[in-house]
Amino acid sequence: MLYGKENREEADYLEPIFGAVCEGEDLPKYKLNPQSVEPRMAYQLVQDQLLDEGNARLNLATFCQTYMEPEAVKLMTQTLEKNAIDKSEYPRTAEIENRCVNIIADLWHASKEEKFMGTSTIGSSEACMLGGMAMKFAWRNRAEKLGLDLNAHKPNLVISSGYQVCWEKFCVYWDIEMREVPMDENHLSINLDKVMDYVDEYTIGIVGILGITYTGRYDDIKGLNELVEQYNQTTDYKVYIHVDAASGGLYTPFTEPDLVWDFQLPNVISINTSGHKYGLVYPGVGWVLWRDQSYLPQELVFKVSYLGGELPTMAINFSHSAAQLIGQYYNFVRYGFDGYKAIHDKTHKVALYLAKEIEKTDLFEMINDGAQLPIVCYKLKDDPKREWTLYDLADRLLMKGWQVPAYPLPANLDDQIIQRLVIRADFGMNMAHDYIQDMKEALLALDQAHLVYHKKQEIKTYGFTH
Ligand SMILES: *Cc1c(COP(=O)(O)O)cnc(C)c1O
């Protein structure tokens, strides 16, 4: 058998990549290629496959970080192989996690009299799961002591209908009834007139959201705390608050330091945040903290031996890279309070600018104008003559590379289609000017279009509204 150039899988070193044999072949997609491929070829093939995907920095759908400084990336690349769970092998990394928990506890005004506890997680989803589990176990311990028949009803969790999907998961996984406090036109965050109607002896806790994913609005956590305070005076079945601060937790302390939403409120017992949202780290890192160890039932804490001693850990995942938490620590060291504040203040300004410019078109009704979280969302004003929808606008913007999802609001308000822009640190004022220019062109094109493809009531999915 003679082998010629045609039968070769590997390329000559000098052969140009796009002239090489293996680049010209269609590799199997759903089973392993029998032969190996040269690294430079494999690199090119995979890179090319990702070529026509969305550009992360133009993705205005996500809260997750899309930029980190080269030094942070270098550090994270150098530490990818460290397993965050190996606390005894990597005690310095464990100490870095510990410092981050302390830094965050300080930002969230943990009380000196109490013993806060906290851990890193993969993101807010894992953090909420841990916060929810702690609430469930703590509730059961309290209710058992008070003699409640634990089997008479399912335990329940009270939350506004603007919840993020992780809470639905939590309730399904742990067999908990989710009691949704509906949002309505006048209540685009938790309705304080209604919330306590949903609470009873089987309530494991109430979740307040600092930054509703759909709209960027804040629940009034201070008001909620007062209601809980009054309620707890009337009953032995105490109820407490967990704050889902996935996006606000590392934003609000810098932009609105006087807003009281955190451990300053006595009934807020635990808080989570996503380090990879306004903590400015690439996904995935999150954090969850309890104001005092008494709110974290000991059954949920597992001991891992650590340098001869024992380090308590609490996590759903086991192995994962420590690179993200090292990236978080880099940001804390690098930016300090002033740096985070400067970055977030600028992001806030960009959001306000965009909201103002979008409002000027007179086509939209603003639902969130970036006043708190830098989220701009709006719906179309009624106009029977207009033939296009927000989905058409999303398509038009996509032609320029901008990913701006349109989607319906949650239950009760789901007849309203909105569009949302999440502004992040790497979306500068200059990009914002470009965006407005592209948006105006898109609007003009739509107004002059002869063909409109989306039915007015059609719901299209443009990805996850995270
Ligand atoms: C993003 C988000 C989550 C989920 O966070 P991940 O870090 O993506 O797991 C939970 N709750 C709220 C309010 C969010 O905005």
TrEMBL record:
One of its GO terms (biological process) is L-glutamate catabolic process. It catalyses: L-glutamate + H(+) = 4-aminobutanoate + CO2. The modification N6-(pyridoxal phosphate)lysine is found at K277. Its cofactor is pyridoxal 5'-phosphate. Gene3D superfamilies: 3.90.1150.160, 4.10.280.50, Type I PLP-dependent aspartate aminotransferase-like (Major domain). Keywords: Decarboxylase, Lyase, Pyridoxal phosphate. One of its GO terms (molecular function) is aromatic-L-amino-acid decarboxylase activity. It is an enzyme of class 4 (lyase). One of its GO terms (cellular component) is cytosol. Its EC number is 4.1.1.15. It comes from the Bacteria. Pfam families: Pyridoxal_deC. Converts internalized glutamate to GABA and increases the internal pH. Involved in glutamate-dependent acid resistance. Belongs to the group II decarboxylase family. This is Glutamate decarboxylase. The lineage of its organism: Bacteria, Bacillati, Bacillota, Bacilli, Lactobacillales.
